[in-house]
């Protein structure tokens, strides 16, 4: 199983049903030294507002989110779900957990 840190839409039960065909159980965690930045993505019916993780100049800045356990096949589904504005990288969270996160591409 893989660890996935979510700070946005993947925390939604509706989105989880859509992407994984199940509801995920997660553990709260934080990512330090990063911040959220607004991002507009063109979708089928126009532009939509999202957030994306970017490194922060302030090492004490924290992003709160949830760590989920997903299979490799489910991680591949998330790769398809996320737009080209995001890239998947591994980070170490405040708990010491190494997890995948989607950051600005």
Protein described:
- The protein has 105 residues and is of the alpha+beta class.
- It has one domain (2-104): Gamma-glutamyl cyclotransferase-like (Hypothetical upf0131 protein ytfp, Roll).
- The protein contains 2 helices and 7 strands.
- The strands form 3 sheets. The chain has a 3-stranded antiparallel β-sheet with strand order 1-5-2. A two-stranded antiparallel sheet has the order 3-4.
- A hairpin with a 5-residue loop joins strand 6 and strand 7 (98-104).
- The chain is globular.
What's the end-to-end separation, in Å?
Answer: 25 Å
> Major β-sheet, in short?
3 strands, antiparallel
The Rg value, from CA coordinates, equals 13 Å
Q: Runs with pLDDT <50, length 5+?
A: none
The string of secondary-structure elements, in order, is EHEEEEHEE
Structural class: alpha+beta
Number of helices: 2
Helical residue percent band: 10-25%
Task: Tell me the name of the CATH class.
Answer: Alpha Beta
How much of the residues is beta strand, in percent? over 45%
Main-sheet strand order equals: 1-5-2
CATH architecture: Roll
Fourth-tier CATH superfamily name: Gamma-glutamyl cyclotransferase-like
E-strand count: 7
Number of domains: 1
Q: What kind of oligomer do you see?
A: single chain
**Would you tell me the overall average pLDDT?**
90
Principal-axes shape call? globular
CATH topology: Hypothetical upf0131 protein ytfp
List the helices and strands and how they pair.
Elements: E1 2-6, H1 13-20, E2 26-32, E3 34-43, E4 46-55, E5 62-70, H2 72-81, E6 86-92, E7 98-104
Antiparallel strand pairs: 1-5, 2-5, 3-4, 6-7
GO molecular function: transferase activity
Domain Gamma-glutamylcyclotransferase AIG2-like: 4-103
Pfam families: GGACT
